[in-house]
Amino acid sequence: MTAVDDTALLLARIQFAFTVSFHFIFPSFSIGLASYLAVLEGLWLKTGQDKYLNLFRYWLKIFAIAFAMGVVSGIVMSYQFGTNWSVFSDKAGPVIGPLMAYEVLTAFFLEAGFLGVMLFGMSRVGKGLHFTATLMVALGTFISAFWILSVNSWMQTPVGWAMNDAGQFVPAAGWWDIVFNPSFPYRLVHTVIAAYLTTALVVGGVGAWHLLKGRKTDETKTMFSMAMWMAALVAPAQILVGDLHGLNTLEHQPAKVMAMEGHFQSHPDGAPLILFGLPDDEAETVHAAVEIPKLSSLILKHDPDAPLAGLDTVAKADRPPVEIVFWSFRIMVGLGFLMLALGLLSLVARAAKKLHDWRLLHRFALLMGPSGFIAVIAGWVTTEVGRQPWVIYNLLRTKDAVAPIDAPAVATSLAAFVIVYFVVFGIGTLYILKLMGHAPHPGESAPAAAPIRSAGITPSPAMGRGGADPRPDTSEEAE
């Protein structure tokens, strides 16, 4: 490729990385928050305690904004398959196109059908129907993650495909092997748990903020307690699932694990675990490495003396960039252990009956509030950059999947994306933070009684229940 082509490719990759990372922030929050809302409404229906209803209404307004920003930011990404990655779309479209269509036909339609009832229907439908709507929205967010992760997992571990005469990937026999490809179950569980942890940390951070401000209402204490239970129970599970995912990656994408571990050289008698260091792709070494002998072999092979291959067994053209993957992986893992520490500390505070009074715990929880977002982005970088130089692992190189684009055009659109995203979604995020700055309280208001009608005909008030006009009669006859 020419220098211009290389520049265009780099810009196209940066643009997609920017938009997908920005987008991933919102689903990683809304997936967990939708389930949290379902739990809150279920507890309210079961116990009748108003604190759960107040918390439901409080977080419902935040969910509505985060969900909307997730949908809008996600739509932009799909256009890039045609503008910047048309070759990829042509070659892989027969496989990934139907899977992404299934996401729209199932998850998106389910969410769109019930979201309005969830947001505006509590006073218009029965409690059971409204709870059903909330459950359907929560289910829709999970189904959406199911299909999108199935697509991504197939690109990581492609199976069940054949090549047609046009050079396109097509299903070889059926769809089951494609959908449930070897890495999909691990990636699905790992990502969904990450979304739940992200939500729990945000809820816990908001609760900690208000507790530090002395706002110890039943609502504030309840949401902080629920968040800490989630951190204490789910963080250890996430570490276990992450370990299983890593073993699966070692089996199917060994070069990615080599980059994560910083193993440029093979280790025939047990590989060390490099905790920190400065990887150098050119020199093929990790400078100033701080390592624990043979621990990597123990973790990955369950045998401290087990041999581990290094990147010296992989052609240079097929190696991922170690300098990025090495550090993104450590950021993710490091934050995961901090989440575990927060959960364990909350158990100590709970046992000492100081959960709502221990300011050290509250400060820690507040500091960890945004850590879930950082961890999921770091994990996404590890997954995607670790797959390079392939867009479909071992089958289609990224440089062969890009559209015939010019660098100036991509640079212009990238600059436009950056400006618009930071302005539009920055304003939305600031508004969410403003809502979080107010503590939930008794009598918490619901979202607007009805969606604002920005177009079309506004129904007559006479179209209310039973056809009666709910407005007071001010006519002369009434006098």
Please explain how this structure is put together.
- The chain has 479 residues and is mainly alpha-helical.
- The chain has a domain at 214-394.
- The protein is 65% helix and 6% strand.
- It has helices at residues 3-47, 50-83, 86-120, 127-156, 176-179, 184-212, 218-252, 254-261, 295-301, 322-351, 359-367, 371-387, 407-436, and strands spanning 161-163, 169-171, 273-280, 285-292, 390-392, 396-397.
- It has a two-stranded antiparallel sheet. A two-stranded antiparallel ribbon has the order 3-4.
- Helix 4 packs across helix 6 (184-212) and helix 6 (184-212) packs antiparallel against helix 7.
- The longest helix has 45 residues, at 3-47.
- The protein is globular.
Q: In sequence order, what are the helices and strands, one letter per element?
A: HHHHEEHHHHEEHHHHEEH
User: Any idea what the radius of gyration is?
Assistant: 25 Å
Could you give the distance between the termini?
A: 85 Å
What is the overall silhouette?
Answer: globular
The helix tally amounts to 13
Counting DSSP E segments of at least 2 residues, the number of strands comes to: 6
| Spatial strand sequence of the major β-sheet | 1-2
Organism: Allosphingosinicella flava
Subcellular location: Cell inner membrane; Cell membrane
Family: Belongs to the cytochrome ubiquinol oxidase subunit 1 family.
Biased composition (Basic and acidic residues): 468-479
Short description:
The protein is mainly alpha-helical and 479 residues long.
Give the topology.
Elements: H1 3-47, H2 50-83, H3 86-120, H4 127-156, E1 161-163, E2 169-171, H5 176-179, H6 184-212, H7 218-252, H8 254-261, E3 273-280, E4 285-292, H9 295-301, H10 322-351, H11 359-367, H12 371-387, E5 390-392, E6 396-397, H13 407-436
